[in-house]
Recover the amino acids of this structure.
């Protein structure tokens, strides 16, 4: 067959498929071409022989590009495509995109969607149409395995629901998350992989194509097994799914789980109070906080919880970001929680959905008295039913005063402000006086029926009537009554009663329930007595069963509390990690050590580097210690280039028996990006443009280290084919419409002497006023926020950005101030230098004196810091405008983020020039705060994180 | 919706199935099932005290097994076994809920494995919500031997790589068998006595019990006694605390009265208090020329060692990894080892634990 024949064959195949598929409503992928390996090889050879991309064979080109997408390894699509297709030209990309669009129009084809597809407009076509590129297959199989219980727990088994569940809960790689953004499509792929049919028996994917994917998955280590187990779990919960042709979606037809009359399916977020014995008759009040992963069911909530600190009502400290997602937590409360407020409050921001849950679930129980039953392990757990039972001991906590002394009462000190407490010892047999006293004091005495989780240790069991179970468990309950009972009438939720004959009194017996669905269930057990022998009313016992799905185990991520790793930001990319801009701390027993290792991996899985960061470290590791150690590690020349080739980096913290913590950092590929490589000591930079934007002009510049204000335009051929960056390098900038990438490239010639390693930037143009202050700040911003490439890039950039700032401050604050700052930099410990700065701020000595006394206040959050500063400025007549004071603080302390918080730089700069003393004051605060620890060399900026 | 009445033995069978354990026709609560329940309880409660785990098991087994005292002892023994076997970590001087309050807590260890000399692997660790953290193909190969879990490698199978792939951490023999520095019994004893002598006078200590070095080393429980007037010298002791495990100490007595007290373990020590105390008692006994004893019995390709006092965790782990635990054979703990590594391990008992063979060993 020639290419014309193949084109005709494919047109016929897709037309037939489109007709068939239009009934199901599911769009077609190019990968559903139905060609085998030999046929694909043949059409590839024919295309390559032709040596140009002909419009008349557009469909074959779409198949060819899709096959490249299927084998794509997640790095650069075009270089490998072009390597194979030697005659391919840049403009052919746009033609290819148009051919895919034609396919989408003519054959009911899939339209790439989601954020990634919007940014990467051309390669989104071949990669989306490849359905499941091979490099993502393992990740999908693993994700399905980890989420098998959640998937099986879906009540509506539609592609959209499955897709949504995956994107909300899968947190593996950026590219995989991007793939999941096409929710409906991924749901459909999953349905196919799990062997489900839908829409009147239609297959979600053309069967030979599905077979091919499944066969490839089988070759991926463990993937087959993961899929098999996922299918098994789903089959266990469904019967007949996939055979229901009457509806537009796959639904459960029968289900072995009980769902009768249960409350809405949502895991409970109830916090449990408990008292822990801390010796010498004293108890500490603690709260058990549930794992919020069960409600973090979308990306937004997950990101919110991962980026927001929280406070526990009554606790002293603020919990770090992500605390609520790290498994079950405990917190000690030093004050009784304010009943008007929820038990959890967020610090930085709020989220409507989570706030709503917290409002309903995370509140202290109503009333003025709380009951804690003392267990044999020295933990007194709150009894929410507020009943007391003979033969047990309780601690009663009250906010409304103690009852009059009585022999059942004893002392119990709870280390918590705002309450009084006493111990209640319930004898095995209560006297009439005891019963009267208990009733008078509003204690409810539990009757003689007793129920408890049996066989398996109870989760969150309060000892009286509340427990937690998993959907994978069949709850088993023990029941005992110390009076003769004829039978028990047992009812789950609003279901029918089950009558079970009772045995001897005092002899426990057991009942099993079927596995239950997610939500809260109520079990009611009523003891029936023989009316001929007893006049007593039937005694009823209750058990509340909160049911949830098991939380998946993600190796290296969920840690037990023996080793606590805190990472801020939690979702740092590889650049942030490598540029030492993360705050990492490792806590654990001081008798243990941890080894930290870094692994750098290329997109094809090749390990570029793997090694230890340092010798093993004694615990704890503080952020400062980490930062020093990592700076030393990345300082190596060799390391700087290896890192640039990596698509992913792993930091593994090995705590021997304490476990292992593994965190993944990825290079976030921008739609437009510089790729910098070191080939035999020569540095080359090339621009990759995946925006698919043909309308807007691309703007690219180079700014050398030596002249950090002078931009040189780069031509399109220079940037697209790649050009050498000569020593010492500089800043590469690229902009196309809203997309931008900047990178500082540091190069040096081999054999350079030590003093040649530094750079001496020339700021004559800035000093002469050839550029405005606003332009200087914009340039500073570009340098500051650029990615780094090459050895010494960080320190060379520092020299440039310091130079910019000194000149900006000199321009506004004056030469005398600039000289005072220089003197301070030489010796930040010098009292004389500090006094000189104070004198230069303003003629009002009081203003400077107060700034010197309270400079630490800028380390607070911005709002209180700025309020204090502007009040002071107003009081001393330094500046009447609060907005100018705010602007000055940002300019003095965090100029690198000024462009993000200030929209009208030019006018603010003009304003602040009217009040130079306010900027001098703000600079004084910045210098004092930055050099508080008096470690040389002096620092220009404080470390506040507004 | 089906609610079924179960007999106690049916409850055990049902939980055995949920926990993924092989069927046991005896219907008894064996160590394997008890260990699986302890692991599950630890997954729910950790970090917690040993007592919390014991209490949760006592509650859920109520009415299913009868003998309250004996079951409590068995649970304690299984918890201790899981600490030695690495499923649980008992860490000193750590903070849990309150960063300012440090104490000794039990943690659930991360899933890990240790390769044994015969190629099989020894599994450790706990995952909350998952009684089996391995996929079926591997989970079905787990052999439960008492409280331990072992997977035997198939011919030409790279089992460690398979387990690493599943996310388990590999523990090297060096890490797993980490032990204190080698010292003579005299050095060990003198070192601790020096620390003890620097302590201020202790005054009375309520409910103190001591290990009487003069009593027979063949009966560990029988060596515990209350201080009496003839007790003068340095002793290993322990004293109860409300709701917690007893506090171990090294104490100087004069005519049965406490003079100085050193609580164990000392700061910055990674070993457990009981391990330090047992090791120190071994040093005391050896220094007194009454070393603690072990019995060696050869049986074909295997050698069984029986011990009459508890072994520190770091030494018992060696036996666990090289051999297998046996039903007690006239001592407190018994292990069988392949004959080819028995001599090496025996040297270890003599040099590191200062033990001696019983006369009836063969």
């Amino acid at each position: 067959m020639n290419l014309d024949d193949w084109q005709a064959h494919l047109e016929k195949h897709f037309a037939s498929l489109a007709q068939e598929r239009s009934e199901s409503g599911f769009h077609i992928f190019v990968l559903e071409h139905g060609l085998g390996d030999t046929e694909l090889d043949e059409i590839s050879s024919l295309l390559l022989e032709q040596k140009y991309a002909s419009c008349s064979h557009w469909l074959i080109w779409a198949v060819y590009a899709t096959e490249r997408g299927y084998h794509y390894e997640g790095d650069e699509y075009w270089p490998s495509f072009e390597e194979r297709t030697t005659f391919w030209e840049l403009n052919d990309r746009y033609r290819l995109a148009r051919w895919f669009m034609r396919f989408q129009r003519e054959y009911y084809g899939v339209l790439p969607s989601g954020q990634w597809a919007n940014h990467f407009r051309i390669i989104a076509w071949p990669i989306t149409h490849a359905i499941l590129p091979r490099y993502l297959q393992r990740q999908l199989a693993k994700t399905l395995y980890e989420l098998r219980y959640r998937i099986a727990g879906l009540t509506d088994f539609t592609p959209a629901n499955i897709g949504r569940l995956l994107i909300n809960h899968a947190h593996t790689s950026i590219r995989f998350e991007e793939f999941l953004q096409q929710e409906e499509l991924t749901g459909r792929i999953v349905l196919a992989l799990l062997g489900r049919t839908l829409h009147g028996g239609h297959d979600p994917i053309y069967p030979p194509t599905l077979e091919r994917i499944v066969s490839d998955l089988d070759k991926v280590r463990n993937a087959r097994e993961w899929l098999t187990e996922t299918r098994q779990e789903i089959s266990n919960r469904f019967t007949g799914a996939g055979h229901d042709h009457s509806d537009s979606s796959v639904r459960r037809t029968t289900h072995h789980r009980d769902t009768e009359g249960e409350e809405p399916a949502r895991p409970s977020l109830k916090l449990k109070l408990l008292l822990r014995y801390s010796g010498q008759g004293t108890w500490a009040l603690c709260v058990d906080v549930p794992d919020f992963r069960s409600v973090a069911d979308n990306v937004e909530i997950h990101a919110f919880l991962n980026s927001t600190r929280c406070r526990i009502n009554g606790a002293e400290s603020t919990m770090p970001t992500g605390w609520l997602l790290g498994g079950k937590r405990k917190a000690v409360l030093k004050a009784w929680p304010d009943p008007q407020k929820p038990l959890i409050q967020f610090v930085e921001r709020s989220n409507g959905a989570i706030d709503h849950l917290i409002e309903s679930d995370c509140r202290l129980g109503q009333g003025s008295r709380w009951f804690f039953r003392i267990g044999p392990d020295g933990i007194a757990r709150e009894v929410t039913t507020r009943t007391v039972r003979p033969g047990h001991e309780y601690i009663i906590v009250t906010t409304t005063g103690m009852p009059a002394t009585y022999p059942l009462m004893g002392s119990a000190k709870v280390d918590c402000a705002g309450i009084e407490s006493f111990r209640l010892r319930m004898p095995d047999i209560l006297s009439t006086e005891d019963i009267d006293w208990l009733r008078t004091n509003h204690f409810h005495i539990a009757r003689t029926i007793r129920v408890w989780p049996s066989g398996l240790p109870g989760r969150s069991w309060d000892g009286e009537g509340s427990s937690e179970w998993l959907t994978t468990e069949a709850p088993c309950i023990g029941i005992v009554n110390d009076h003769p009972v004829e039978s028990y009438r047992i009812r789950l939720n609003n279901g029918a009663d089950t009558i079970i004959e009772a045995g001897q009194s005092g002899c426990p017996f057991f009942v099993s329930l079927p596995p239950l669905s997610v939500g809260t269930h109520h079990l009611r057990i009523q003891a029936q007595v023989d009316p001929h022998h007893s006049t007593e009313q039937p005694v009823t016992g209750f058990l509340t069963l909160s049911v949830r799905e098991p939380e998946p185990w993600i190796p290296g991520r969920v840690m037990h509390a023996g080793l606590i790793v805190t990472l801020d930001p939690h979702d740092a990319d590889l650049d942030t990690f490598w540029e030492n801009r993360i705050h990492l701390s490792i806590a654990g027993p001081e008798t243990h050590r941890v080894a930290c290792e870094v692994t750098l991996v290329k997109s094809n899985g090749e390990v570029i580097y793997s090694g230890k960061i340092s010798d093993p470290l004694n615990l704890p590791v503080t952020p400062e210690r980490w930062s020093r150690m990592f700076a030393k590690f990345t300082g190596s020349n060799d390391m700087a280039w290896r890192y640039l080739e990596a698509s992913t980096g792993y930091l593994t913290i090995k705590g021997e028996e304490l476990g292992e913590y593994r965190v993944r950092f990825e290079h976030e590929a921008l739609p437009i990006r510089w790729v910098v490589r070191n080939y035999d000591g020569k540095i080359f930079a090339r621009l990759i443009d995946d925006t698919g934007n043909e309308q807007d002009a691309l703007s690219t510049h180079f700014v050398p280290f030596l002249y950090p204000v002078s931009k040189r335009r780069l031509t399109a051929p220079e940037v697209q084919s790649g050009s050498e960056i000569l020593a010492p390098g500089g800043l590469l900038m690229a902009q196309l419409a809203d997309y931008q990438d900047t990178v500082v490239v540091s190069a040096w010639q081999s054999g350079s002497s030590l003093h040649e390693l530094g750079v001496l930037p020339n700021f004559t143009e800035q000093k002469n006023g050839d550029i405005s202050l606003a332009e200087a700040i914009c340039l500073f911003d570009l340098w500051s926020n650029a990615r780094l490439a090459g050895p010494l890039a960080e320190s060379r950039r520092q020299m440039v950005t310091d130079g910019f700032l000194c000149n900006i401050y000199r321009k506004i604050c004056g030469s005398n101030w600039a000289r005072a700052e220089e003197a301070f930099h030489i010796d930040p410990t010098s009292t004389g230098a500090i006094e000189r700065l104070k004198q230069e701020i303003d003629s009002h000595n009081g203003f400077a004196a107060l700034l010197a006394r309270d400079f630490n206040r800028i380390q607070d959050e911005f709002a209180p810091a700025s309020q204090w500063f502007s009040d002071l400025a107003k009081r001393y007549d330094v500046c009447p405008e609060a907005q100018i004071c705010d602007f000055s603080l940002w300019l003095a302390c965090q100029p690198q983020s000024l462009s993000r918080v200030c929209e009208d730089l030019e006018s603010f700069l003009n304003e602040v020039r009217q009040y130079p003393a306010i900027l001098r004051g703000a600079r004084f605060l910045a210098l004092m705060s930055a050099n508080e620890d008096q470690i040389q060399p002096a620092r220009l900026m404080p470390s506040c994180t507004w | 919706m089906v609610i079924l009445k179960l007999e106690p033995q049916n409850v055990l069978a049902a939980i055995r199935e949920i926990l993924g354990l092989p069927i046991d026709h005896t219907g008894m609560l064996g160590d394997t099932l008890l260990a699986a329940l302890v692991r599950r309880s630890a997954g729910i409660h950790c970090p917690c005290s040993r007592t919390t785990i014991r209490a949760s098991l006592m509650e859920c087994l109520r009415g299913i097994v009868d003998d309250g005292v004996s079951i409590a002892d068995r649970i304690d023994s299984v918890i201790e076994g899981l600490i030695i076997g690495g499923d649980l970590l008992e860490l000193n001087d750590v903070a849990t809920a309150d960063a300012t309050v440090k104490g000794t807590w039990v943690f659930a260890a991360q899933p890990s494995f240790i390769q044994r000399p015969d190629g099989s692997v020894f599994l450790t660790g706990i995952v909350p919500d998952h009684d089996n953290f391995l996929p079926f193909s591997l989970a079905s190969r787990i052999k439960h031997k008492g409280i331990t879990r072992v997977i035997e490698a198939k011919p030409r199978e790279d089992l460690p790589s398979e387990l690493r792939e599943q996310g388990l951490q590999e523990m090297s023999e060096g890490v797993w068998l980490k032990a204190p520095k080698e010292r003579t019994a005299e050095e060990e004893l003198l070192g601790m006595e020096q620390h003890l002598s620097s302590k201020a006078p202790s005054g009375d200590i309520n409910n103190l019990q001591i290990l009487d070095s003069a009593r027979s080393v063949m009966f560990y429980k029988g060596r515990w006694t209350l201080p009496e007037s003839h007790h003068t010298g340095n002793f290993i002791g322990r004293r109860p605390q409300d709701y917690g495990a007893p506090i171990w100490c090294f104490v100087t007595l004069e005519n049965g009265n406490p003079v100085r007290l050193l609580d164990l373990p000392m700061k910055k020590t990674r070993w457990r208090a009981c391990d330090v105390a047992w090791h120190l008692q071994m040093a005391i006994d050896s220094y007194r020329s009454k070393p603690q004893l072990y019995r060696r019995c050869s049986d074909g390709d295997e050698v069984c060692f029986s011990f009459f006092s508890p072994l520190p965790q770091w030494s018992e782990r060696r036996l666990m990894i090289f051999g297998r635990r046996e039903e007690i054979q006239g001592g407190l703990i018994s292990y069988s080892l392949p004959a080819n590594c028995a001599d090496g391990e025996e040297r270890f008992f003599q040099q590191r634990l200062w033990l001696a063979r019983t006369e009836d060993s063969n």
Remarks:
- The two ends of chain A are 67 Å apart (CA to CA).
- Chain A has 32 helices and 39 strands.
- Confidence is low (pLDDT under 50) at residues 239-264 of chain A.
